[in-house]
Amino acid sequence: MTQPLFDRINRYSVTIPANGDAADIFYPVVSPTSLDTYPVGLLLPGFNVDKYYYDLFARKVASYGFIVVVPNHRISDRGKPALFAQVQQVTEVLAFMKAENLNPKSPILNQVDGEKLVLLGHSHGGFIGFDAIRNVCESPWCVGNYRRPPELLAGVFYGSDFWEDGEFLTIDNSRNYAAISHQHKGNTAPNYPGIPLALIAGSRDSLIKAENVQVTYNHIKQPPKAYIKITGANHYGITNIDNPPGSPRERNSPTLGQEESIEAIARWSALFLRAYALNDAEALDYIHIQAKSQDPNITVISQP
Q: Which domains does the chain have, with CATH numbers?
């Protein structure tokens, strides 16, 4: 499956009880008689980027068969309120979505596959996603306790590198399936060496340069992994508009249209996640073979 499955995507707004975060949830519109369920996709936003500006991207990812959650997580940054994703949101949102699946008042009653969680991230949100996958909880990126849930199956991050204290860090995405038994509707999860990770970069990104994203890709310890560069996209190629209010300033204007950029990032994100979280053979073929010659704006390096 390499095309969207759904033409209609609905959205509703909630408050995550564990942390008080306002969140938008995007879900496919299905027949009332449908028994299908869909994985949870948690989108971790960039620093000071409001959830509103991920509306188009989240809808597109949801159209490939995911229920996408986009939260606003607020902290105090040097005495000022800021939107700042943190690692513990991963388990908090997963628990909420499992409860939402059983909530008779929820629009997504009985539609959530709470055994499948994937991460999406932008900029700072991708940095937090790396820690979530590494099973690391360090202040200020994380508060309280965090343990990587066995439901976490894959991640895709846009405009994110993993650089700290003057060096690029190794992303240990190893997963010990002997220690963590996980079932997918009666089938054992594929025994990949690591949690599958894809990094997407914009060639015009001045905040997180494409070459730094590629170095970060090289520091992912285990395959499957992919590095995807989108020619003409800048740091905010994923958001509804360039330079959303309050966000860090991007100096470079994009040369790829905003709608084209969002579509490309969402398509590659969704297909990578379908390939490795849902064992979608067509999506896997697209990621590693077909699209390398079919999409003129895309450069791909991958290791299945």
A: 9-303 (3.40.50.1820)
Cα separations in angstroms, 91 against 111, 117, 145, 238: 19, 10, 10, 24
Which 8-state DSSP code applies to residue 84?
-
Enter the tokens of residue 78.
């040097």
Give the residue from 159, 28, 153 showing the smallest Cα distance to 90.
153
**Nearest by Cα to 12 from 105, 148, 95:** 105
Q: d(Cα 235, Cα 265) in Å, to the nearest integer?
A: 12
DSSP track, 209-240: -HHHHHHHHHTB-SSSEEEEEETT--TTTTSS
Profile the chain (304 residues) by mean pLDDT over runs of 10 residues. 93 97 98 94 98 98 98 88 97 98 98 98 98 96 95 98 92 70 44 93 98 98 97 98 98 98 97 96 89 79 94
